[in-house]
Design brief:
Elements lengths: L6 E2 L11 H7 L2 E8 L2 E8 L5 E7 L5 E3 L19 E4 L2 E5 L6 E4 L6 E2 L6 E9 L4 E8 L8 E8 L5 E5 L4 E7 L5 E7 L10 E6 L10 E5 L5 E6 L5 E8 L1 E7 L5 E3 L19 E5 L2 E8 L2 E8 L5 E4 L5 E7 L3 E8 L2 E9 L5 E6 L14 E7 L3 E8 L6 E2 L8 E5 L13 H7 L4 E6 L8 H4 L9 H15 L8 E6 L1 H12 L5 E5 L5 H7 L7 H5 L7 H6 L13 E6 L8 H13 L3 E6 L9 H19 L17
Parallel strand pairs: 1-32, 33-34, 33-35, 35-36, 36-37, 37-38
Antiparallel strand pairs: 2-3, 3-4, 4-5, 6-7, 7-8, 8-9, 10-11, 11-12, 12-13, 14-15, 15-16, 16-17, 18-19, 19-20, 20-21, 22-23, 23-24, 24-25, 26-27, 27-28, 28-29, 30-31, 31-34
Length: 646
């Protein structure tokens, strides 16, 4: 057997089988795994269908078919980020349709029928109140353009479609959950200026004979506590997650009203509540709780004995696990790993056998083209430590010229209250298989490392995150793993702000890319949607009282300090970060004479969902760096117009 000798070629110019066409044509998004009797459902986000979210059903005989026909798009606009846009109960499907935001009702094989009227209302996170023939969920009323939307808990009558407000008065609500006997309702709420990972309250109330909600009791939460994920066990006890001891751990409310921790660990048992429907634990029985938790950036699956409180890890080949749904005989979840695409997985309790029901990608890629991430901890400001995942260049067909170090692309994740994922990501492999190093940074403020780590960003957005991204890149350059003269930074949304701030206020990076990123904090504070309208109070300071700080940290006001090329990608229908944020920055850089490129996308909102735009953004950014860093791509790429480039 003869082995092909790798070719010698500069980093960045390696030819890779992982193309943008392959990524957009062969990759979908998966989520929302749900059990209904013997049937299993999940959501598929399909770039090839304009980003449409389709509900898919797998029957007990293994047949898989779409449930929601085109043009229906299972997606809600509550909080703009949505989530929990469907419910399946007793072989009946209820879902929000993105185009009109009405609730629809459907049985498999039939056409969806509208349940609610067109009334400028959106719905999310609904449950079935079977005894009263209604849904209970979060309702966001946008009917009055002169005020911010009004959020409530509301019921929708399944016979008439009538909507009735059940709970109101707070700015935000989430996770209405009925007790097994239908007599009590639990939920959590929060108010401006807090975000749900800062301060929330968990409530319980009895349901009256007429269906109204009785006087509510607050059983957990407060100004310095984030509670979430309430769920009733089969025997009627209320469980939830709280960070009262720094870490998002599991708790239970006992029959006498006391709150009891279940397994105190330096681990997080939930995600930040950006979207509805987060399911990080579920009940196989009253005595057995199945949960997932994260430590040092990786997620694990475990079984918890609710009586002895003993936690038993379950061996899994996955590092990212969520969307848990269990019965007495099986578990369904969504998971992935650095070398395995996200998949819907079914596990049989008796045999322990696992079965992959659907993969986000069926591509079979030789491991010789795949970079496996390495967890790194690096020193940063104030004698602290921050964390990242480093993907070195990897392509079995190539080696670099002796003495050459690879360019590095630093990824600043969005949120900023979020975290990186080490699930197999073809977009990352696109870069590493062409000869780039890729560094995914969990800067201070990221989740998964406890409340104290999360609070590092309080009043310091644009400082802590920027320092950590810059120090992460310097750490790799100083240790001789990457080329310190070819450091680039990229990010979307909040990560786009960190990118622009790093390029403006630091001299570490030589180029960068902003994907729908923030350049003007003051404009963001004035123009963004309700959910995030007071987010900056905790990240930057109160507005307008501290307007000077907003301007001080906004790249748009300090373009004289920016001295490297930048490319911008922007959806023209983005309501979270409006297009004028990018356009003002582009004009400023253009007038200054700096190399700058602007790629707008018609019909896109916050994040790109259409395959042609995902492809254009990926290839366009790579083309931009090829011109800036002076290497020749192996593939023909549609050029991007770069203004002021000699």
């Amino acid at each position: 057997m003869t082995m092909t000798k790798p070719q010698t070629a500069p980093f960045g110019s390696w030819k890779s089988p992982i193309t943008s066409d392959l990524i957009v044509s062969e990759t979908i998004k998966l989520g929302g795994a749900t059990l209904d009797g013997e049937d299993i459902y999940w959501l598929e986000g399909r770039p090839s269908e304009g980003g449409r979210y389709v509900l898919v059903r797998r029957t007990s005989d293994g047949k898989v078919a779409d449930v929601t026909p085109a043009p229906f798009n299972v997606r809600t606009r509550v909080h703009e980020y949505g989530g929990a846009a469907f419910l399946i109960a007793d072989r009946t499907i209820y879902f929000s349709n993105f185009a009109d935001q009405r609730l629809y009702q459907q049985t498999p094989g039939s056409q969806p029928k509208p349940l609610t009227q067109e009334a400028n209302r959106s719905y999310a996170d609904y449950i079935l109140d079977k005894a009263r023939n209604r849904l209970i969920g979060v309702c966001e009323d946008q009917s009055n353009p002169d005020r911010e939307p009004v959020n409530t808990l509301a019921s929708v009558d399944l016979a008439s479609g009538e909507v009735q407000v059940l709970v109101s008065g707070s700015d935000f609500y989430s996770s209405p959950r009925l007790s097994p006997d239908g007599s009590q309702l639990a939920w959590f709420s929060w108010n401006h200026p807090n975000m749900p990972w800062d301060s929330t309250w968990l409530w319980v109330a009895s349901i009256q004979d007429d269906g109204s909600i009785g006087e509510a009791s607050c059983i957990a939460g407060g100004e310095e506590e984030s509670v979430s994920n309430p769920e009733w066990s089969p025997d009627g006890k209320l469980y939830f997650v709280s960070d009262r001891n720094n870490w998002w751990n599991l708790y239970r409310r006992e029959s006498d009203g006391t709150i009891e921790p279940l397994c105190e660990m330096e681990a997080e048992f939930t995600f930040p509540h950006w979207v509805f429907g987060i399911s990080t634990y579920t009940f196989a029985s009253a005595k057995r709780l199945i949960c997932t938790y994260t430590q040092q950036g990786s997620w694990y699956l475990a079984s918890l004995d609710t009586k002895t409180k003993q936690l038993q890890p379950l061996e899994m080949p996955y590092t990212d696990i969520g969307s848990l749904q269990a019965t007495a005989d099986r578990l369904v979840f969504v998971a992935g790993s650095p070398t395995e695409p996200t998949a819907v997985v079914q596990m049989d309790w008796e045999s322990g056998q696992q079965q992959i029901l659907k993969r986000a990608s069926n591509l079979e890629i030789d491991s010789g083209y795949l970079s496996v991430p390495e967890a790194i901890a690096f020193p940063t400001e104030n004698n602290q430590t921050a964390y990242a995942w480093f993907y070195p260049p990897q392509n079995k067909d190539y080696t670099a010229p002796e003495g050459e170090l690879p360019p590095l692309l630093v990824k600043s994740h969005g949120g900023p209250t979020a975290a990186t994922s080490v699930t197999f990501n073809l977009k990352i492999q696109y870069w590493t298989s062409r000869g780039f190093g890729y560094l995914d940074v969990n800067y201070g403020g990221s989740t998964g490392y406890g409340r104290n780590y999360r609070q590092r960003l309080k009043n310091h957005w644009g400082i802590v995150d920027v320092n950590d991204c810059a120090n992460a890149a310097k750490y790799l350059a100083d240790t001789g793993r990457v080329d310190g003269d070819r450091l680039a930074i990229t990010g979307g949304s909040a990560g786009g702000y960190t990118t622009l701030a790093a390029l403006t206020f630091r001299d570490t990076f030589k180029a960068g890319a902003s994907h729908y990123g923030v350049s003007d904090l003051e404009a963001l504070a004035k123009e963004t949607h309700k959910f995030e309208s007071r987010y900056l109070d905790g990240l930057v300071g109160q507005y307008p009282q501290q307007q000077a700080i907003y301007k001080e940290r906004s790249p748009i006001y300090h373009t004289e300090r920016l001295s490297c090329p930048v490319i911008f990608f922007q959806g023209l229908e983005d309501k979270i970060v409006p297009p004028n944020q990018a356009e003002k920055m582009v004009e400023s850089l253009k007038s200054k004479g700096l190399p700058v490129a602007y790629v707008p996308f018609e019909g896109e909102q916050h994040g790109f969902r259409r395959s042609e735009n995902i492809k254009r953004a990926l290839d366009g950014e790579f083309y931009f760096y090829s011109r800036v860093f002076g290497f020749e791509p192996a593939d023909e790429i549609d050029p991007v117009e770069i203004m002021n480039l000699d």
